[in-house]
Amino acid sequence: MLKNKALIPVQAITTKPPMCVSLKINNYTEEGRKATHRYLQKVDVGIMRYIMCNPVQRKSVEYNDNRIALYAGQSGNYSITKRKLEVGNMEVHHKLPRHQKGTDSYKNLTWVLKDVHILITCN
Asked: Which of 92, 11, 20 is CA-nearest to residue 51?
């Protein structure tokens, strides 16, 4: 501390480049916006609207936000079979369960069939 200000040594500051980022897909150029829209054409807007309008009660905002992002990220498909998601037969599964210190982060969630989710969580 120097005059009530924290000092951080310059050598302690690190950065790392973003991974898995496409420079073509962005909101700042016409070509980038078109690429974004082409990518999102794979998802069913009706199901996306359903997910957005029906958050899971008693779950975190992060969980519900990531359900939406995950739907687009999985192109509207189940993670295992790659079949299209259907309202009433789809659930988000925590890869590492919450009781084992799993989080609601995007990387820890995946869309699965309702019956598959029951089988996974029974063990």
From this structure: 92
Alpha helices in the chain (DSSP H): 30-40, 45-53, 61-73, 114-122
How is 23-49 classified by DSSP, letter by letter?
SSS-SSSHHHHHHHHHHHTTS-HHHHH
Distance CA 5, CA 123 (A): 52
Give pLDDT tens digits for 60-71: 999 999 999 999
Strand partners, 2: 5
Distance CA 87, CA 47 (A): 7
Whether the model pTM is above 0.85: no
